[in-house]
Every structure is written in structure tokens, then in C-alpha cells.
Amino acid sequence: MVDSNTLVIITSISGNTAESLAILDSAHEKNRKIMYFSADGKMEEYCTKNKIEHRVFPQMHFPRSSFPIFLYDILKTLVYYSHEKS
Fold it and tell me: What is the largest CA-CA distance in the chain?
């Protein structure tokens, strides 16, 4: 269940995944806390326009090869925020 205390984490390596865009738009309309991770794309534009926290990471030639960098960045950010809240 997503409520006002939930942090919605949305990921898309390309930044153009239709499902991720739909979730991003829905969470934003409901004023949920959002953190978005991608290399660029429409998601980055949406986040910049709507002042949503967005983490950009480098994309390799093939999206699947970007996964280790992508996962590390997400985990590093979550650890940072968990320590900040403690």
C-alpha cells in the first residue's frame, strides 16, 4: 500500500519506459515522495520540470551492461538516506 509516508522509487535505464512514466505521473499527481533513477530520457525531463529528485547514472552501450552501476547507485543513495533519517 502506498500512502503519504511511502517513498516511491522508480527506475528505468533508458528513462523512456512507458510503465515507469505512468507510475511517475501517478505518484506525482498523488503528491507522493518520489526518487527516480535513469540515464536520461523523458523521465529526466519530467523530473526536472516538476522538481522531482532524479539520479542520473552513465549508460553503457547496452542497457543490461549498465545494471551493476545502476544498482550500486540506487543502493548507495538508499544507504545515504537511511543514515540521514537515523
Answer: 38
Does the domain formed by 7-85 have CATH 2.60.40.10? no
> Which residues 6+ apart lie within 8 Å of 83 measured at CB?
none
* Spans in the chain with pLDDT lower than 50: none
* pLDDT at residue 24 in the model: 93
SS3 for the chain, per residue? CCCCCCEEEEEECCCCCHHHHHHHHHHHHCCCEEEEEECCCHHHHHHHHCCCEEEECCCCCCHHHHHHHHHHHHHHHHHHHHHHHC
- Domain ranges across the chain: 7-85
- The mean pLDDT value of the chain amounts to 84
- Cα gap 52→28, rounded to integer Å: 8
- Total residue length of the chain: 86
